[in-house]
Design brief:
The structure is a homodimer.
Chain A lengths: L4 E5 L12 H8 L11 E5 H7 L3 E3 L7 H7 L6 H9 L1 E8 L2 E6 L4 E3 L14 E3 L5 H16 L4 E8 L8 E8 L5 E2 L3 E2 L5 E2 L3 E2 L1 H13 L7 E5 L24
Parallel strand pairs in A: 2-8
Antiparallel strand pairs in A: 1-14, 2-14, 3-7, 4-5, 5-6, 8-9, 10-13, 11-12
Chain lengths: 251, 251
């Protein structure tokens, strides 16, 4: 029997700076209704992780290459911002109509290699890059919660990605610790006893989506707790969410 | 300030048959913790809507075309199942490695045009098709809740779609009534007062994801209520989620 799930905003996170101890700030902010419990999923938006890990770059420190200059023509993007995108890209998947879709070092495919100028102080003069190892960022938070509170929680680092075919972006998991990112129903009978085959649900992405409903884009609430969800056990990291090229029809 | 969101499973929906009155069954099942409140988002999985609307086909009533026979070779799919996929497709987007990605009559791009054999009685001898007009299916439920209870609720019909690049499927909205499917932050200042541009969030899809965490695939819980989310006002239908071909790099 399915139980109710709660999605709880974590209020009162301070402004995060380079070098800040995200786990310590989180543990301090998780009070009252956001007091952590075993089995919670702590969903942390990427931007504060990037800030704390020093993954913020001043455009004035970047020199745009000729390619970056060419790709920025006719777009709103500063060529130095484009240069940051190129430097964060392992592969350019599409470059058309002013948009750069690239594969990141983690294997994620997204617009601008996840390089983004929103919700960072300094406005258009600064850009945030994805964490170098977002699974390790998640594991670090999970470990610290276990040490400080003795609680077993899952941690997701989330970011906002667009997708082909459908308008609007949704949140996805770019870092996962303490759970399996996929619920695997292969070989499980459905409600009529028939075998479901090839049904894997990206529950880590669905958890990121649920959390986005309370963290939003403009609310200044960078963390949410999803409580009451019995997540699949394991420790797949976010790499379980990356489809191997050989099984992807849209590379 | 963001408040807490609750995702509440609606237990006790009976087995749905062709011709059943889904709104009446829903109103009956929504009791106790699932008693409806104004502002709720009622998320109804596609399969029960298709069943009630007679969108279930017996394979024995289908004759496979030569194309369906050819496309089924080397796959697990019954050629008559493939024929149903072809008949539900407005366009084949990709056909490779046994997979058919097609565009439906609604403009959705998904595997097998949404034709699916899981969670219907009769097992592999029957397939379910998407509702002919899933927005109208959603509007009908919304109207009946307003008539019976005097409550203004939003309604989403959800289905499970795969996506390029990422492993695992997630739930999406294929029918939307009583809300705008997208939260539009264009021209809204972010937490630092900078303007967010080109940021639209597909909140109807995120709501479908949140609901999937309680409806699952094998739980026999086909409906969930998302409570406490202040959804964007409007009545865009699901068509707002369909990216026009001219703005899509992956057709």
């Amino acid at each position: 029997m399915a139980g109710e799930i709660r999605v709880i905003p974590v209020e009162g996170m301070p402004e995060v700076q380079n070098g800040d101890d995200i786990p310590a700030l989180l543990l301090e902010a998780c009070t009252g209704p956001a007091e952590l419990e075993a089995g919670d999923v702590l969903v942390v938006t990427q931007k504060i992780v990037s800030k704390a890990e020093g993954r913020v770059v001043q455009l004035e420190d970047i020199v745009a290459s000729p390619l970056a200059l060419a790709l920025s023509e006719g777009t709103h993007r500063d060529p130095r911002h484009t240069e940051a995108v190129l430097q964060e890209s392992a592969r350019i998947v599409r470059n058309d109509r002013g948009t750069i879709i690239s594969e990141t070092r983690h294997g994620f495919i997204c617009a601008n290699a996840g390089v983004d100028a929103s919700n960072i102080p300094g406005g258009s003069g600064t850009v945030a890059l994805l964490p170098l190892d977002s699974d390790e960022s998640a594991r670090r938070i999970r470990r610290r919660v276990a040490e400080a509170k003795g609680l077993d929680v899952a941690v997701i680092i989330s970011d906002t990605f667009g997708r082909p075919w459908r308008e609007g972006a949704t949140n996805v998991a770019i870092g996962v610790a303490g759970m399996h990112a996929l619920a695997d129903y292969r070989g499980t009978p459905d409600a009529y006893g028939e075998m479901l085959y090839t049904t894997m649900i990206a529950v880590a992405d669905e958890l990121a989506c649920a959390a986005e409903l309370v963290t939003g884009k403009t609310l200044g609430v960078p963390v949410a707790i999803v409580r009451g969800y019995r997540y699949p056990l394991g420790d797949s990291g976010s790499q379980a969410l990356v489809r191997p090229a050989a099984r992807d029809l849209f590379r």
